[in-house]
Every structure is written in C-alpha cells, then in structure tokens.
Amino acid sequence: MGGGHAGDGLRLIRRAPDGVPLNTMAALTFALGSALAAAAGILFGVAYPVLDPYMGIVFGWKAFVAAILGGRGSVMGATLAGFLLGFTEIFVAMIFPSTLRDLIAYSIILLILAVRPHGFFGEPYSARLRL
Q: By C-alpha distance, which of 75, 63, 71 is closest to 29?
C-alpha cells in the first residue's frame, strides 16, 4: 500500500477527498481488513486447534475497547489503548488472581472513560445533526 495508486488514494481521502473514488477506496479498505482478519483467524486456528464459533470473541472485545478508549478515528490512540490494556492485564495478573484480570482492567478503562469520554486522542463532539 506504500507506493501504489491504491495506497495513494487511501492517504488522499484523509487530506482532500475530491476526485478520489470513495466507493472503490471503501471497498478496498474493507477487503484489506477482511483479508487481515482471515489471516489472523487461520493463524489462531492453527495455534489452538479447537473449532468454536466464539473462539475470537475475547480478542474482538479487547480490540473494540482499545478503539473506543483510543478515540474516534485515531489509530495512534487505539494503539496506545491496546498497549495500555495489555500492560494492565499483565500487571494485574501479577498482583491479583488471574481470574480477576479482565474485571480490573475493564474497570480501570471505565474510570478513564468517565474522566475522558472521547478517549485519549479523540476530539469532543456533540450529537447535533450536521447537514
């Protein structure tokens, strides 16, 4: 994606969306994300050979929490929140029983969101209708 037309189009959407085929870029982004998710699912299935419809739900929840905590539309914030969630879970498991690590980690994240509801790098926004 670094030097081709598709990568340039995806970067150009952020700066100046005029003249960029938005539907094509949205389809390309969806296809790329789906391909990465499929590769991760295959690798996870090879590492843990148990077929279960809920085998990735914990990872999905953690990714969702990291995206919300990072801020709306902020990749840097989601990355920081993912690292914070991981470090919190590891340190909590060192001190408390490991069965409480998710409870304590998510409680800390709820406290952070109570203080800063738009996430780390998100911008405050209102729910007004913008036409």
A: 75
